[in-house]
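Appendix B, example 12.
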Amino acid sequence: MAKKNPQKPDFVYDPLKDKGKKVPGEIVSSDLEFNKNSMAKTHISTDFSDLQKPPKPRWRRIMRIVLIVLGVLAAIAAAIALYLFLKAGKISTNPFDFSSKLKGEDEGRVNILLLGIGDPGHAGETLADTNMVVSINTKTNPHQIAMVSLPRDLQVKIAGDGTGKLNEAHAYGESQKPPQGIETSKETIEETLGIPIHYYVRANFTGLKQAVDAVGGIDINVKEPLIDPEYPCEKNENKSCGIKIPAGQQRMDGATALKYARCRKGTCGDDFGRALRQQEVLTAIREKAVSLETLSNPAKVNSLIEAASNNIKTDFSLRNIQRLQEITKDVNVADITNVVFSLKPNGFLVSSKTSSDLIPAGGNFDDIQKFVANIFELGPIWKEDSKITILNGTTTPGLSLKLQKYLESNGIPITVSSVGNATTKDYTTSKIIDYTEGKKPNTANYLAKLLGVEVTPPPAPVKFPVVDFEVILGADYAASSANTSTN
């Protein structure tokens, strides 16, 4: 049987063909060197030209990504800033004010006028039924806030139009050409209260309602059930639909908050009760608007801007608003002083005998202006609504009447229920007896400072005290009042 020839391989290595060539990794004689001590050192020649080059440093790629992200964020910020600026131009009459501080801030007090008017087409839409001044005390740390509401029926001297009701000031100004309702209201209230108005905000009903909805509703503690059978219908102001708001903690949407702030009949009381509720609503809106929940939600911020741009007019710029938030962010709501001038004792007003107007109890606005000028000191005292009796514990006649006159002439909001003589006339040092068990500290502190003595509790508990404090004047007061401002 014949043998088969073996299959030749595809490749056969021929060392003669590669003679003189250098194989990678092969040690050849030329690569060997010997030192003087005949110590051999081997050098291995390796060719890496066919391997991949090392990658570029990682930090360069990271920096490229960071720059792209920063560029996108800058573009977004610029778009938001442009959007806000365009909206601010529609809301503000002074959008280009980039001042680092507010007007009045360096003088220690910033005064802001808040005006509330009806919606377009509403009966009496140019009447400003809400007239409120918000003052910020920039001398203290934290700063203090006071809110003062003036009733719409207050008889005042309207700038350029003689005497009339306060709500007519804005309407009169709007009837001029060009309309100047805000300026007329500002001048009228400056003249009435004796303080400068640095800024203003004017809003209509829809603006209030939309602002509440924009922040997701507000929380109000309704102190008693509110029932107003004459409250007008939302779509027809000439018809009555009535409202009922139960007592207790309530989460209110915009429509309910507007009803709460507007009702003034039935159990809602009158204009004075309405003014106080308006202060509650505005305070609640402020709390929600500057909260992290709102500021971190672009949709809510946009809704607030939209509500403001269509229904609010102000001379605040965006920078002014930012500064306002900065100087009031640490103010505790419980520490805000809320004042509503009214017919109550120490309310500073009485009813006119010849009209439905309200007039100052003292015949002019002097007492009111003194009170407003010292609102941060006197407001907390006014809030406590204290009643005192003043007794003369010396042989000096008329001492009790002298102190009463001092309190009244200086606009100190403390009701003097009675004056008379103490059981003995041998008091060398004046005495202040507190029957409130310390529940009215602002009044106690004022009286103690005025007379220079400490406040003491009664010698024995009194179940139903007639007054909050009993002041017995001693020889020390008789001597000091002869030569001081308390005379």
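Residues 25-43 have pLDDT under 50 and may be disordered. The domain at 386-481 is CATH 3.30.70.2390 (Alpha-Beta Plaits).
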